[in-house]
Write a sequence for this structure.
């Protein structure tokens, strides 16, 4: 996780923090950084310069767990070499495996689960040699506007976590085990945090959670997405508001009204569908059919003409046949989503799907993933080609990593990290990070756009 690092002052402990996994995890990491910056700590960019190393782990699927383990072991080498004195591991992998990690990773000084990361400073500053090494309990903690936080993503864009946990029990998903049940934040709390971000120069808010559609249901007082989005849009400086991870069930009318009528709420919806074939959806415990999903998508598109839709699918779920995959392919072809992510199923211990019969061969999974992404790539390319010569608004985010001579940005239909970006050629001298400027598209790639600022 990047940070602007000042020279370490005398008496301040140098800390290097690595954040793995999803944007929700990134927000947790930002809260931990905020805690540290209220104390005698200084962030450093290189682990070799750190006295304390913190790894915030992911464990959603097997590859994420493997990456987390590899990262911890890599950071342990700095401790073995004597440059770092403490190594702390936090997050989902700790929540999932608990105290069993102590024997597997004796190099680690402390483990904090997903409901305990707010105790990082307490653990670092403890002098009790008899204190427990692992801190894991039922996840209940929910950061709020009083939790110090350092935005690490972009000067112009930030993630805003609106709730934690999930009440759904999909057969393939371990999130309820890792994050607990749904816990929504109150609107005034979110507004205060968003206002603070706006004062730092943030113009785009990306609302994230495990299940954004369910936001407010647990509060049982009428709190919902429509009211939240309206209140956030009233904040001076906020220009774009984007919703991620909207479970397809029960999309509230207030959300669709905001998408259709609020100029600050971008016409974009991330709505993970996971599959389209009836037998697979039933085995996944999604509680919906292909026809039901088509009705939902039709409702969204009628309410918000021209909306950009992102979704994700899992291929190779236990029992998925060639016929099931053909149904999914037909669904993708007919729906023509703007953005699609395709994941292969992993047999995750602790999930109902792990014990299902009909586990699919890994080679078949990868073939299906490749085939579906090839289909989607053709859909996207035809859509992007139609934009050549058109004018779109672009949020300027900085220089492109490929060349300092190019600026990079995103349109309202491109979410950070997952949907491609825009490269700006021959930008006027007055262009600044955080501006939203009109751009004429001149070229397209597989997922990216190239263009010139207009005016």
């Amino acid at each position: 996780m990047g940070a602007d690092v000042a020279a370490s002052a005398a008496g301040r402990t140098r800390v290097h923090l690595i954040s793995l996994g999803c944007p929700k995890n990134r927000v947790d990491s930002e809260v931990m950084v905020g805690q540290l910056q209220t104390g005698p700590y200084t962030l450093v960019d290189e682990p070799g310069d750190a006295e304390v190393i913190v790894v915030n782990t992911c464990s959603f699927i097997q590859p994420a767990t493997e990456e987390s383990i590899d990262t911890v072991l890599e950071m342990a080498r700095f401790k073995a070499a004597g440059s770092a004195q403490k190594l702390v591991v936090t997050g989902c992998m700790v929540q999932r495996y608990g105290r069993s990690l102590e024997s597997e990773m004796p190099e680690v000084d402390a483990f904090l689960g997903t409901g305990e990361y707010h105790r990082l400073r307490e653990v670092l500053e403890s002098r009790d040699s008899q204190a427990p090494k692992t801190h894991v309990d039922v996840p209940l903690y929910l950061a709020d506007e009083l939790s110090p936080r350092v935005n690490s993503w972009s000067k112009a864009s930030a993630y805003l976590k609106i709730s934690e946990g999930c009440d759904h029990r999909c057969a393939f998903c371990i999130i309820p085990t890792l994050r607990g049940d749904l816990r929504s934040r109150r609107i005034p709390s979110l507004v205060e945090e968003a206002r603070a971000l706006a004062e730092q120069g943030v113009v785009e808010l990306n609302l994230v959670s495990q299940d954004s559609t369910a936001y407010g249901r647990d509060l049982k007082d009428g709190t919902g997405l429509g009211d939240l989005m309206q209140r956030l849009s009233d904040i001076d400086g906020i220009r774009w508001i984007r919703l991620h991870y909207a479970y397809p069930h029960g999309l509230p009318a207030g959300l669709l009204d905001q998408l259709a009528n609020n100029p600050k709420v971008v016409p974009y919806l991330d709505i993970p569908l996971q599959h389209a074939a009836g037998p697979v959806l039933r085995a996944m415990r999604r509680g919906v059919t292909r026809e039901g999903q088509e009705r939902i998508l039709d409702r969204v598109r009628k309410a918000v003409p021209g909306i950009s839709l992102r979704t994700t699918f899992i291929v190779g779920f236990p029992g998925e046949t060639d016929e099931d995959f053909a149904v999914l392919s037909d669904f993708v072809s007919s729906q023509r989503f703007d953005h699609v992510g395709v994941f292969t199923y992993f047999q995750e211990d602790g999930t109902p799907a792990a014990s299902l019969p009909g586990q699919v061969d890994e080679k078949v999974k990868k073939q299906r993933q490749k085939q579906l992404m090839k289909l989607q790539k053709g859909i996207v390319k035809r859509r992007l080609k139609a934009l050549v010569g058109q004018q779109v608004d672009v949020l300027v985010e900085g220089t492109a990593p490929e060349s300092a001579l190019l600026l990079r940005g995103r349109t309202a239909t491109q979410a950070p990290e997952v949907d491609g970006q825009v490269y700006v050629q021959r930008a006027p001298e007055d262009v600044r990070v955080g501006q939203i400027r009109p751009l004429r598209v001149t070229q397209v790639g597989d997922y990216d756009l190239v263009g010139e600022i207009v005016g």
